[in-house]
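Section 5.1 Outputs to date
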Amino acid sequence: MKGLAAFVMRGRFQALMVTVAGAGSLLFCWISAAVLALVTLRKGAGPGLGLLAWALLPSGALLYAYGDSGPLTLLVGTMVLAVVLRSTVSLPLAVLSSIPVGVLTGVALAAFGGEYLDQVVKVFGDFLATMEQQLSQGGEAVVLARPDARQIAGMMGAGTAASSVMCLLLARYWQAALYNPGGFGQEFRALYYPAAVTTALALGAIALAAMGAQYRTWAMICVLPLALAGLALVHARAAARGQGKGWLTGFYVAWLIFDPVKLLVVFAAIADSWFNFRQRWTGQPGTDVSERDTDEDR
Protein backbone atom coordinates (compact mmCIF):
# COMPACT_ATOMS: atom_id res chain seq x y z
CA MET A 1 0.00 0.00 0.00
CA LYS A 2 2.91 2.34 0.62
CA GLY A 3 3.95 1.75 -2.99
CA LEU A 4 0.53 2.88 -4.18
CA ALA A 5 0.80 6.02 -2.06
CA ALA A 6 4.25 6.77 -3.49
CA PHE A 7 2.90 6.26 -7.02
CA VAL A 8 -0.03 8.61 -6.41
CA MET A 9 2.24 11.35 -5.06
CA ARG A 10 4.50 11.32 -8.13
CA GLY A 11 2.19 13.69 -9.95
CA ARG A 12 -1.31 14.91 -10.64
CA PHE A 13 -1.90 12.47 -13.51
CA GLN A 14 -1.10 9.43 -11.36
CA ALA A 15 -3.38 10.65 -8.56
CA LEU A 16 -6.16 11.41 -11.05
CA MET A 17 -5.86 8.00 -12.71
CA VAL A 18 -6.12 6.04 -9.44
CA THR A 19 -8.91 8.23 -8.07
CA VAL A 20 -11.13 8.00 -11.14
CA ALA A 21 -10.44 4.28 -11.63
CA GLY A 22 -11.83 3.37 -8.21
CA ALA A 23 -14.52 6.03 -7.84
CA GLY A 24 -17.14 4.12 -9.80
CA SER A 25 -16.48 0.77 -8.16
CA LEU A 26 -18.29 -0.57 -5.11
CA LEU A 27 -15.22 -2.64 -4.21
CA PHE A 28 -12.47 -0.06 -4.71
CA CYS A 29 -14.02 3.33 -4.00
CA TRP A 30 -12.28 3.32 -0.60
CA ILE A 31 -8.93 3.52 -2.40
CA SER A 32 -10.11 6.59 -4.31
CA ALA A 33 -11.34 8.18 -1.07
CA ALA A 34 -8.00 7.53 0.67
CA VAL A 35 -6.10 9.00 -2.30
CA LEU A 36 -8.31 12.10 -2.17
CA ALA A 37 -7.52 12.49 1.52
CA LEU A 38 -3.79 11.95 0.99
CA VAL A 39 -3.57 14.60 -1.72
CA THR A 40 -5.61 17.00 0.41
CA LEU A 41 -3.44 16.46 3.48
CA ARG A 42 -0.21 16.85 1.54
CA LYS A 43 -1.08 19.43 -1.13
CA GLY A 44 -4.08 21.28 0.27
CA ALA A 45 -7.83 21.53 -0.28
CA GLY A 46 -7.54 22.95 -3.81
CA PRO A 47 -5.83 19.95 -5.43
CA GLY A 48 -8.04 17.61 -3.40
CA LEU A 49 -11.23 19.29 -4.60
CA GLY A 50 -9.94 19.11 -8.17
CA LEU A 51 -9.60 15.34 -7.87
CA LEU A 52 -13.01 15.11 -6.20
CA ALA A 53 -14.64 16.91 -9.14
CA TRP A 54 -13.35 14.21 -11.51
CA ALA A 55 -14.21 11.39 -9.09
CA LEU A 56 -17.82 12.59 -8.90
CA LEU A 57 -18.33 11.66 -12.57
CA PRO A 58 -18.09 7.86 -12.21
CA SER A 59 -19.60 7.83 -8.72
CA GLY A 60 -22.44 10.06 -9.90
CA ALA A 61 -23.01 7.77 -12.88
CA LEU A 62 -23.29 4.83 -10.48
CA LEU A 63 -25.85 6.75 -8.46
CA TYR A 64 -27.85 7.64 -11.57
CA ALA A 65 -27.78 4.13 -13.04
CA TYR A 66 -28.34 2.01 -9.93
CA GLY A 67 -29.42 4.45 -7.22
CA ASP A 68 -26.39 3.52 -5.07
CA SER A 69 -24.98 6.63 -3.39
CA GLY A 70 -22.35 4.72 -1.38
CA PRO A 71 -19.21 5.62 -3.40
CA LEU A 72 -20.30 9.24 -3.80
CA THR A 73 -21.05 9.79 -0.11
CA LEU A 74 -17.80 8.05 0.88
CA LEU A 75 -15.76 10.31 -1.40
CA VAL A 76 -17.46 13.49 -0.18
CA GLY A 77 -17.39 12.42 3.47
CA THR A 78 -13.70 11.54 3.39
CA MET A 79 -12.94 14.82 1.64
CA VAL A 80 -14.73 16.75 4.38
CA LEU A 81 -12.74 14.99 7.09
CA ALA A 82 -9.46 15.55 5.23
CA VAL A 83 -10.16 19.27 4.86
CA VAL A 84 -10.89 19.50 8.59
CA LEU A 85 -7.67 17.68 9.45
CA ARG A 86 -5.64 19.77 7.03
CA SER A 87 -7.00 23.07 8.36
CA THR A 88 -7.06 22.25 12.09
CA VAL A 89 -4.23 19.68 12.35
CA SER A 90 -6.39 17.90 14.94
CA LEU A 91 -7.15 14.23 14.40
CA PRO A 92 -9.77 14.15 17.20
CA LEU A 93 -11.65 17.05 15.60
CA ALA A 94 -11.48 15.39 12.19
CA VAL A 95 -12.91 12.15 13.63
CA LEU A 96 -15.60 14.17 15.42
CA SER A 97 -16.55 15.68 12.06
CA SER A 98 -17.72 12.22 11.00
CA ILE A 99 -20.87 12.80 13.06
CA PRO A 100 -22.38 15.48 10.78
CA VAL A 101 -21.19 13.47 7.78
CA GLY A 102 -23.08 10.41 9.00
CA VAL A 103 -26.18 12.33 10.05
CA LEU A 104 -26.42 14.26 6.78
CA THR A 105 -25.91 11.07 4.78
CA GLY A 106 -28.69 9.31 6.65
CA VAL A 107 -31.05 12.27 6.41
CA ALA A 108 -30.39 12.64 2.68
CA LEU A 109 -31.09 8.96 2.10
CA ALA A 110 -34.29 9.13 4.13
CA ALA A 111 -35.45 12.22 2.24
CA PHE A 112 -34.43 11.39 -1.34
CA GLY A 113 -33.57 7.68 -1.48
CA GLY A 114 -36.94 6.14 -0.74
CA GLU A 115 -36.91 3.75 -3.70
CA TYR A 116 -33.35 2.62 -3.01
CA LEU A 117 -34.09 2.14 0.69
CA ASP A 118 -37.14 0.05 -0.16
CA GLN A 119 -34.93 -2.21 -2.29
CA VAL A 120 -32.45 -2.61 0.56
CA VAL A 121 -35.28 -3.35 3.01
CA LYS A 122 -36.53 -6.05 0.63
CA VAL A 123 -33.05 -7.58 0.37
CA PHE A 124 -32.78 -7.66 4.17
CA GLY A 125 -36.28 -9.13 4.42
CA ASP A 126 -35.51 -11.93 1.96
CA PHE A 127 -32.24 -12.72 3.73
CA LEU A 128 -33.90 -12.83 7.15
CA ALA A 129 -36.71 -15.00 5.78
CA THR A 130 -34.11 -17.50 4.60
CA MET A 131 -32.45 -17.39 8.00
CA GLU A 132 -35.82 -18.03 9.71
CA GLN A 133 -36.41 -21.09 7.58
CA GLN A 134 -33.00 -22.52 8.45
CA LEU A 135 -33.36 -21.79 12.15
CA SER A 136 -36.90 -23.21 12.25
CA GLN A 137 -35.95 -26.61 10.88
CA GLY A 138 -35.70 -27.93 14.44
CA GLY A 139 -39.44 -27.53 14.84
CA GLU A 140 -39.74 -24.28 16.80
CA ALA A 141 -40.69 -21.26 14.71
CA VAL A 142 -38.16 -18.42 14.74
CA VAL A 143 -39.14 -14.86 13.85
CA LEU A 144 -36.46 -12.23 13.27
CA ALA A 145 -37.12 -8.50 13.41
CA ARG A 146 -37.12 -6.73 10.05
CA PRO A 147 -35.39 -3.35 9.75
CA ASP A 148 -37.41 -0.54 8.21
CA ALA A 149 -36.26 2.23 5.87
CA ARG A 150 -35.42 4.61 8.72
CA GLN A 151 -33.19 2.03 10.38
CA ILE A 152 -31.45 1.30 7.08
CA ALA A 153 -30.86 5.02 6.50
CA GLY A 154 -29.24 5.32 9.93
CA MET A 155 -27.19 2.20 9.32
CA MET A 156 -25.89 3.59 6.02
CA GLY A 157 -25.18 6.95 7.63
CA ALA A 158 -23.15 5.23 10.34
CA GLY A 159 -21.42 3.12 7.71
CA THR A 160 -20.47 6.17 5.69
CA ALA A 161 -19.13 7.92 8.78
CA ALA A 162 -17.06 4.89 9.80
CA SER A 163 -15.75 4.28 6.28
CA SER A 164 -14.81 7.94 5.89
CA VAL A 165 -12.81 7.80 9.13
CA MET A 166 -11.06 4.60 8.02
CA CYS A 167 -10.12 6.15 4.67
CA LEU A 168 -8.83 9.25 6.44
CA LEU A 169 -6.71 7.15 8.81
CA LEU A 170 -5.32 5.19 5.86
CA ALA A 171 -4.39 8.45 4.12
CA ARG A 172 -2.78 9.76 7.30
CA TYR A 173 -0.82 6.51 7.63
CA TRP A 174 0.35 6.85 4.01
CA GLN A 175 1.39 10.44 4.62
CA ALA A 176 3.41 9.50 7.69
CA ALA A 177 4.98 6.49 5.97
CA LEU A 178 6.18 8.67 3.09
CA TYR A 179 7.18 11.86 4.89
CA ASN A 180 7.20 11.30 8.68
CA PRO A 181 7.83 7.63 9.60
CA GLY A 182 6.34 6.70 12.95
CA GLY A 183 4.30 9.89 13.20
CA PHE A 184 0.93 8.25 12.60
CA GLY A 185 1.28 5.81 15.50
CA GLN A 186 2.14 8.61 17.91
CA GLU A 187 -0.75 10.70 16.64
CA PHE A 188 -3.30 7.90 16.84
CA ARG A 189 -2.27 6.84 20.34
CA ALA A 190 -2.87 10.44 21.50
CA LEU A 191 -6.48 10.48 20.21
CA TYR A 192 -8.49 11.69 23.20
CA TYR A 193 -11.64 13.68 24.00
CA PRO A 194 -12.35 15.86 27.04
CA ALA A 195 -14.99 14.73 29.51
CA ALA A 196 -17.53 17.24 28.22
CA VAL A 197 -17.28 15.83 24.69
CA THR A 198 -17.49 12.17 25.69
CA THR A 199 -20.41 12.88 28.00
CA ALA A 200 -22.28 14.71 25.24
CA LEU A 201 -21.64 11.88 22.78
CA ALA A 202 -22.75 9.23 25.27
CA LEU A 203 -25.91 11.14 26.17
CA GLY A 204 -26.69 11.68 22.50
CA ALA A 205 -26.34 7.96 21.76
CA ILE A 206 -28.48 7.03 24.77
CA ALA A 207 -31.17 9.53 23.82
CA LEU A 208 -31.36 8.21 20.25
CA ALA A 209 -31.47 4.59 21.40
CA ALA A 210 -34.23 5.44 23.88
CA MET A 211 -36.38 6.80 21.04
CA GLY A 212 -36.96 3.27 19.80
CA ALA A 213 -35.51 0.59 17.55
CA GLN A 214 -35.82 2.86 14.51
CA TYR A 215 -33.17 5.20 15.88
CA ARG A 216 -30.70 2.74 17.41
CA THR A 217 -28.69 2.59 14.21
CA TRP A 218 -28.48 6.39 14.29
CA ALA A 219 -27.04 6.19 17.79
CA MET A 220 -24.02 4.38 16.37
CA ILE A 221 -22.98 7.61 14.65
CA CYS A 222 -22.44 9.20 18.06
CA VAL A 223 -20.60 6.13 19.33
CA LEU A 224 -18.03 6.13 16.50
CA PRO A 225 -15.66 8.81 17.93
CA LEU A 226 -15.82 7.12 21.34
CA ALA A 227 -14.91 3.78 19.78
CA LEU A 228 -11.92 5.32 17.98
CA ALA A 229 -10.75 7.02 21.18
CA GLY A 230 -11.08 3.70 23.02
CA LEU A 231 -9.04 1.88 20.38
CA ALA A 232 -6.40 4.60 20.60
CA LEU A 233 -6.31 4.04 24.36
CA VAL A 234 -5.73 0.32 23.81
CA HIS A 235 -2.82 1.09 21.48
CA ALA A 236 -1.39 3.54 24.02
CA ARG A 237 -1.60 0.88 26.71
CA ALA A 238 0.10 -1.68 24.49
CA ALA A 239 2.90 0.76 23.65
CA ALA A 240 3.39 1.69 27.32
CA ARG A 241 3.72 -1.98 28.31
CA GLY A 242 5.81 -2.97 25.30
CA GLN A 243 3.19 -5.40 24.00
CA GLY A 244 3.72 -6.33 20.37
CA LYS A 245 1.56 -6.81 17.29
CA GLY A 246 0.51 -10.30 18.40
CA TRP A 247 -1.31 -8.96 21.45
CA LEU A 248 -3.04 -6.26 19.39
CA THR A 249 -4.05 -8.82 16.77
CA GLY A 250 -5.64 -10.97 19.47
CA PHE A 251 -7.45 -7.95 20.86
CA TYR A 252 -8.90 -6.99 17.48
CA VAL A 253 -10.09 -10.55 16.89
CA ALA A 254 -11.92 -10.43 20.22
CA TRP A 255 -13.21 -6.92 19.42
CA LEU A 256 -14.67 -8.09 16.11
CA ILE A 257 -16.29 -11.23 17.53
CA PHE A 258 -17.56 -10.25 20.98
CA ASP A 259 -19.95 -7.30 21.44
CA PRO A 260 -19.08 -6.84 25.15
CA VAL A 261 -15.51 -6.01 24.10
CA LYS A 262 -16.86 -3.24 21.87
CA LEU A 263 -18.81 -1.82 24.80
CA LEU A 264 -15.78 -2.02 27.08
CA VAL A 265 -13.75 -0.03 24.55
CA VAL A 266 -16.38 2.72 24.49
CA PHE A 267 -16.62 2.80 28.29
CA ALA A 268 -12.82 2.93 28.51
CA ALA A 269 -12.77 6.02 26.29
CA ILE A 270 -15.33 7.74 28.53
CA ALA A 271 -13.43 6.79 31.68
CA ASP A 272 -10.16 7.97 30.14
CA SER A 273 -11.67 11.39 29.49
CA TRP A 274 -12.26 11.71 33.23
CA PHE A 275 -9.17 10.02 34.64
CA ASN A 276 -6.61 10.33 31.81
CA PHE A 277 -5.06 6.88 32.05
CA ARG A 278 -2.34 7.75 29.55
CA GLN A 279 -0.73 10.12 32.05
CA ARG A 280 -0.53 7.32 34.63
CA TRP A 281 1.01 4.92 32.13
CA THR A 282 3.50 7.16 30.33
CA GLY A 283 3.70 10.40 32.29
CA GLN A 284 2.30 12.19 29.23
CA PRO A 285 -1.40 13.08 29.14
CA GLY A 286 -3.60 12.34 26.18
CA THR A 287 -4.47 15.37 24.14
CA ASP A 288 -7.43 16.43 22.09
CA VAL A 289 -5.11 18.28 19.70
CA SER A 290 -2.94 16.01 17.59
CA GLU A 291 0.78 16.37 17.10
CA ARG A 292 1.30 19.29 14.77
CA ASP A 293 3.27 18.82 11.57
CA THR A 294 5.78 21.19 10.12
CA ASP A 295 5.07 22.75 6.76
CA GLU A 296 7.43 20.22 5.16
CA ASP A 297 5.52 17.26 6.67
CA ARG A 298 2.22 18.60 5.44
